Amino acid sequence: MSAAAPRRTLNRQVLADHVHEELMSWLIDGRLEAGANLSIDGIARDLDVSPTPVREALARLEHTGMVRRVALKGYKVAPLFTAPELAQLVDARLMIEPVNAELACARSTPQLVDDLKQTIEDLRHAPTGASYAEFREYWKADEDFHRLIAEHTGNPFILNAYRTLGGQVQRFRFFAGLGVTDADNAIAEHTAILDAFAAGDAAAARAAMVAHLNGVKQRSILDSAEHP
Amino acid sequence: MSAAAPRRTLNRQVLADHVHEELMSWLIDGRLEAGANLSIDGIARDLDVSPTPVREALARLEHTGMVRRVALKGYKVAPLFTAPELAQLVDARLMIEPVNAELACARSTPQLVDDLKQTIEDLRHAPTGASYAEFREYWKADEDFHRLIAEHTGNPFILNAYRTLGGQVQRFRFFAGLGVTDADNAIAEHTAILDAFAAGDAAAARAAMVAHLNGVKQRSILDSAEHP
DNA sequence: CATAGATAAATCCTATAGGAACTACCGATA
DNA sequence: TATCGGTAGTTCCTATAGGATTTATCTATG
Q1: Would you call B6 helix, strand, or coil by DSSP?
Q2: How far, rounded to the nearest angstrom, does the alpha carbon of residue B181 sit from its chain's CA centroid?
Q3: Which of A49, A109, A125, B113 is deepest in the core (most CB within 10 A)?
Q4: Which chain B residues contact residue A72 at CB under 8 A?
Q5: What is the mean pLDDT of residues B17-46?
Q6: ipTM value
Q7: DSSP character for A67?
Q8: Where in chain A is the domain with CATH 1.10.10.10?
Q9: Order of strands, edge to edge, in the sheet holding B74-77?
Q10: If pLDDT is split at 50, 70 and 90, which confidence band does A133 have?
Q11: B187 in A contact zone (CB under 8 Å)
Q12: Which one of 3.20.20.120, 1.10.10.10, 3.40.50.2300, 1.25.40.10 gives the CATH number of domain A15-77?
């Protein structure tokens, strides 16, 4: 690149971050087929970037489970979940999130209740169309609700464990297409959890979270049966 | 590098993997001070490698929590744990591992029982000296015990969540220096868990794991009070 | 016709070059 | 003396070059 001028000299931001976000959005939106090869050079060409930042972005992405790496072979998009895997994912969430709800409720603040209420409002108003952009708004509101609770446990390790699951949740939700089908259920169940928070009833919060996740589990299994 | 011949032409393995393991061992062994700058170029010089694989290794390492990154600033060794953080870490383990014990016990096999017994043997025979090499043997036996159980839940997401914690456990264990002080307790408590597995009593396995982790929590707090 | 070998392309991986920003230090000037 | 400015060094970040290996294609031979 001695003839052509450098493309981004004043753009004081890390290119690898941009690549990372771009790939993330491709993966969440399902623009990439499961099992597809993620060629480093190819992505670099597509994004008009050198392979170096692509390499770094993929390395960061690997631990989310959305991308698999084989040494000296390259990266691939991880395969889609099977129905049993969907159930297992919710089982793992059932291990963590009810405790989160109980802990967060015990340390709840009016601010938290307001924030949670806001995510439910967002959920209610988010379009449930099939478009990826729309779907993402819905997903974000849903994710925010659960993440806020995880953050309010006050335990960073728990939050980290929840995040580890969350990376997978993204793909799971897209795959199952729940954003379109179970909005009413999700809003009702989130509201039940919120009510427990507002009342300061930690045991009820825990129970409501269990009920919610069991609902998610059942509905996702049904959905995945319809879309083999 | 046109004059000097390429250093590793036949070495058919990824250099970034080697750098990754090397950094990991530096971090676990405590050879790196907390808060120290991890200069990409500097590490490259030290390991006689170009910055590219170092960059990739650090990107992979970031999610373990042992290393922090600030865009355009570089990487630093994460600060050591405080006593409340140690307690929180065990709290997070208490959320996951008792369930693991219950699930794994329900699906237990003679093979698993044998493997667990072996880790206890290793624990018993591992030197408890202050040398890093010795300490690592002890830590590995301990880690194997807990990981085997997590693997036998049959739920890859749970295993993943446990691993997320595990990355932190490494530093925690080194920091607190438990490997030297509580070997007898750990062996006894692991044996109690093993007995429950051998008897096929899932509830007892769960209870024994709770007791073990509570023991770890108390002892680590005591230790960290002694070594401020 | 089928198969073996060679050529070309794609790919991963590492090294190197160089730009931009920050830091430290040192000398010159008000 | 104190402050300002410049220079060298370090560091992060990205681009580019090139080696090694695999894959695909195509040709030549049995």
Answers
A1: coil
A2: 18
A3: A49
A4: 12-14
A5: 93
A6: 0.86
A7: E
A8: 15-77
A9: B37-38, B74-77, B67-70
A10: low
A11: no
A12: 1.10.10.10
